[in-house]
Amino acid sequence: MIDAVEPALLPSRIQMAFTLATHVLLVPMGVAMPFLTLLMEGIGLYRKDPVALKIARRWSVVMAVQFAVGAVTGTILSFEFGILWPRMLGRFGAAFGLGFAIEGLAFFLEAIFIGVYLYGWNRLPARVHFLLGLVLPPAGVLGAASVLSANAWMNTPGGYSLQDGRVTNVDVMSALFPRALGYEFWHFLLALYLTAGFVVASVYAVAWLRGRRDHYQRLAFAVPFTVAAVLTPAQLVIGDLSARALVEDQPAKFAAMEVTWQTRDHNPEVIGGVIDDSGNVHLGISIPALDSILVGYTPNQVVRGLSTFAADSRPNTFEVNLTHLAFDVMVGLGIVGAALSAWYLWVVWRRRRLPEQRWFYRLAALAGAGSYLTVELGWITTEVGRQPWIVYNVMRVSDAVTTAPAAFIWSMLTVLVVTYALIAFFFVTLLLRLSARWRREDLGEPGAPEVGVPYGPRPRTLEG
Amino acid sequence: MPELIAFVLLLGITAYSTAGGVDFGAGIWDLLAGQSPRGKKARELIDHAMAPVWEMNNVWLVLSIVVVWTGFPLLFQTVFSALYAIYALALLGLILRGAFFAFRHVAGEPRTHRIADLVFGVSSVLTPFFFAASLGAIAAGDLRVFSPMTVAFGLVSLAATAFSGASFLVADARRYGATELVGYFQRRAVVAAVALIVVGTLALAAIASENPGLFKAMLAGKGLPFALATMVLTPVAAFLIWRGTFRWHRVLTVGAVGSMVFAWAFAQSPYLIPGRLTIDQAIAPTPTQVLLLVVTVVLVLVIVPAIGLLVYLDQRGALESPQS
Ligand code: HDD
Ligand code: HEM
Ligand code: HEM
Questions:
Q1: What integer pLDDT is reported at residue A231 of this predicted model?
Q2: Does the C-beta of A262 come closer than 6 Å to ligand 3?
């Protein structure tokens, strides 16, 4: 019925979800890869290890290429706010937009210093190069924090006063630091760093499985994997804090995550399973009273159910199931990741060497893709669980959507999907070619890792 | 203070038009270079000159749009509700351009390489044309997607970017020792300057018939100094390039294009959309303005030294591959 009123709603939501989900795949490496690269460079400088420096230099190339793709997809997102949700920005831009103003600053810095860092290899004194690189990690964190501030504002809006549908005053501090930012920020920051760690390490886990096990491969595996292994267990704790905070901040989302229909005590924790329109849960494993215990540390804790919200103020059945399953798989994958991390840390700590079991490396090779998946699932939990609100309890998605014809948005979506597929193809081709070339260089061909990269340094004169 | 925010926005748009314009212009010449040996050589130079800069220019675009939605939410809503189709086309150009610029470095076969060249070139035409067209729709005051004003602004932007691109490529050809391309781009810069003067005049005629108030403000009101500056700087820059006096031609080119943007903006102030929405009507509450200004000041304080560092290293050749 809503779709009849706002024909562009469905394609707009799909388009927003598609472009955001793509952009966020580039974010972990964009924000956290500079840290890993600098860590490697630092090790190389400290131990005078040319292999570590070579690895760092190669990673910096990947970082730069990926930054370029991130910049394109991010620019698209900014325009989509106008093309898809003009009424939301028109009403709340003065409060919601603040985070993005700071984001611009952070990305500006990143863009410049990635350039300096990439071109500066072997052309600047080693120490100066390293010090200039130190600008990158904080700039990335600042950028992530400010986007998250905007997202947290959508979840727990505040810091503005409305009159006749217009924002008449803004409290900058409460608009920039919405309550949800406290947990979303730390949870997301850890997610970025551990994802980058697992993804980079997974490349070298594959190499290990193929029999390449020299100093180069081991170092390039151990550094990022150690970072990820230390952070993953902490992530479970922070994730738990987020979930607990939602009980107060967004009870409908929490009820959807746990498929709770009736408000009750001794509420079971349902793992898997789907709910139907009348609130019955099918399939799934139900652990008696566990949800109540997790929320209030006692089985007598009362947990609010979906049926206490008006039908037009809570996610619909499909959205509830999506939120629930996404949440469960995120938690499941998080636990698997923590187990893998524990295995690794145990071996490193007790035996003072890397694990040697093939199974370990098989799992490590999957951990990269697994973390990307987990990040996507986390965002599905956050965004779909907030439905039907674009600004929680204040503005519905259907009141924000554009008045453009649905056919237009569908066409735009189609074009975007095709071009993104092309970009993904080029991106992967480029990385594979780089990797093949580096392998050749290891066998003796000379050359600098950055040469020939689209955003890499230029020779002083044109060839030929 | 609202005027200050509007001025920050104007600076963002101007930076994108001038710095981004150089890049788009290079793309246009890339499209027109053809497959002759000399065309290939020109394309190689273009690639070489552009490689490290384009994402930087995206930053100006993003910054401008953020200032619009935080500083002037109502402008953002009004403009996008009416002109979404124009922006979608500009965006399409933007993605394709980025993707295919990267792709031609990866493309192995000559045929795919040619396709990549073509898409890159065409998208370099789409983006400036449609971004400028949206400004034309705003300047007309009626926000119509298709009107003499949108077409006129689009064409002016093509001529202006082609001019900026050629002017900078002359310098790049000298810098990278491609002597035979200096004359090649000198000629193109002069042709583009003449084209710019012609379409500029036609655009003024379009403005006079579509929005006489704006026309008057441009030639007799607040826009006048900048309109005059464009009219003087464009031929002077073209003359210097033609004569082979390569000292100031880039600064003058940027000045010519920048003044054009200023002439439009000052002529329509205090309106953001002539006849419909003023700066004061659209402006966000004071605390938001303060934050925007603080961010702008920090940006200037941080970015200017950073860009200075980049330019310094670039000039020292510290950012180029060692000769092999
Ligand atoms: C690799 C990453 C990763 C891992 C291992 C986990 N999460 Fe997560 N989670 C995210 C990555 C993520 C995310 C993608 O980063 C999200 C999306 C929004 C956000 O702030 O973080 C998220 C959101 C998110 C939310 C929604 C927050 C909101 O709507 O404001 C909750 C309740 C949890 N997570 C809970 C957990 C729990 C209980 C986990 C493990 C036991 C867990 N997450 C592991
Ligand atoms: C970065 C990772 C993010 C992902 C993967 C993501 C994912 C999604 C998804 C899946 C939807 C569609 C929900 C539905 O159709 O039911 C959505 C909607 C939306 N998201 Fe997010 N989101 C992300 C972050 C953000 C951020 C940071 C913002 C804003 C600051 C944001 C703003 C929106 C808006 C405006 C919508 C449209 C309204 C809606 O359908 O909920 N998202 N997002
Ligand atoms: C949680 C969500 C997000 C995070 C952490 C994030 C982070 C980043 C990062 C790190 C980059 C730099 C490119 C890279 O390193 O890959 C980037 C680029 C960009 N992002 Fe996102 N992003 C998020 C969501 C969004 C959303 C919702 C928008 C838009 C409205 C957006 C707009 C942009 C823009 C405009 C750029 C390009 C900046 C430039 O040109 O330098 N991002 N983002």
A1: 92
A2: no
pLDDT, tens only, A100-117: 888 888 888 888 888 788
Identify the CA nearest to A69 among candidates A429, A452, A433: A429
Q: Is B314 exposed, middle or buried (0-12, 13-18, 19+ CB in 10 A)?
A: middle
Q: Which pLDDT value is given to residue A3?
A: 45
Q: What is the pLDDT of residue A380?
A: 94
Inter-chain Cβ pairs, chain A and chain B, closer than 8 A: 241
**What pLDDT sits at residue B50?**
72
Q: Which of A61, A89, A162, A395 would best serve as a mutation to test chain B binding (most B beta carbons within 10 A)?
A: A89
Q: How many CB atoms lie within 10 A of CB A407?
A: 11
ipTM, interface predicted TM-score of the complex = 0.86
Q: Which residues of A327-356 are buried (b: 16+ CB within 10 A; e: fewer)?
A: bbbbbebbebbbebbebbbebbeeeeebbe
Supply the pLDDT for residue B324. 31
Using the beta-carbon criterion (under 8 Å), do B73 and A92 form an inter-chain contact?
Answer: yes
Q: Which chain A residue has the Cα nearest residue B319?
A: A119
**Cβ of A207 less than 6 Å from ligand 3:** no
Q: What is the pLDDT of residues A233-242, one digit of tens each?
A: 999 999 988 8
How many Å lie between the centroid of ligand 3 and the Cα of residue A76?
Answer: 10
Q: Which of A185, A193, A271, A330 to mutate to test the pocket of ligand 1 (most atoms within 8 A of CB)?
A: A330
Q: β-pairing, A269-271 with A274-275?
A: unpaired
Residue numbers of chain B with a pLDDT score lower than 50: 322-324
**Whole-angstrom Cα distance, residue A281 to residue A303?**
16
**Cβ A457–B176 below 8 Å, yes or no?**
no
Tokens of B253: 């080119």
Measure Cα distances from A448 to A34, A118, A121, A262, A451 in Å: 19, 11, 9, 64, 6
CB B143 within 8 A of CB B82: yes
Q: Determine contact, residues B207/B157, Cβ cutoff 8 Å.
A: no
DSSP secondary structure letters along B26-47:
HHHHHHHT-SSHHHHHHHHHHH
Q: Write down the H helix ranges in A86-180.
A: 86-96, 98-120, 126-133, 136-155, 172-176
Decide if A456 and B322 are in contact by the 8 Å CB cutoff. Answer: no
CB B137 within 8 A of CB B144: yes
Q: Which residues of chain A have pLDDT under 50?
A: 1-4, 456-457, 459, 463-464
With CB atoms and an 8 Å threshold, state whether A402 touches B318. Answer: no
Task: Provide the token pair at B69.
Answer: 């939605």
Handedness of CA A362, A368, A371, A375 (dihedral sign): negative
Ligand 3 lined by A66 (C-beta under 6 Å): yes
Count Cβ atoms below 10 Å from residue B61 Cβ, excluding itself: 21
pLDDT at B51: 61
First to last CA, chain A: 66
The residue with tokens 């994402």 is B55
Element (H, E) at A161: strand A160-163
Cβ–ligand 2 distance for A181 under 6 Å, the answer no
Question: Which stretch of DSSP H or E encloses residue A270?
Answer: strand A269-271
Phi, psi of B277 (to 5 degrees): -145, 120
Contact of A23 with chain B, judged by CB distance below 8 Å, is answered with no
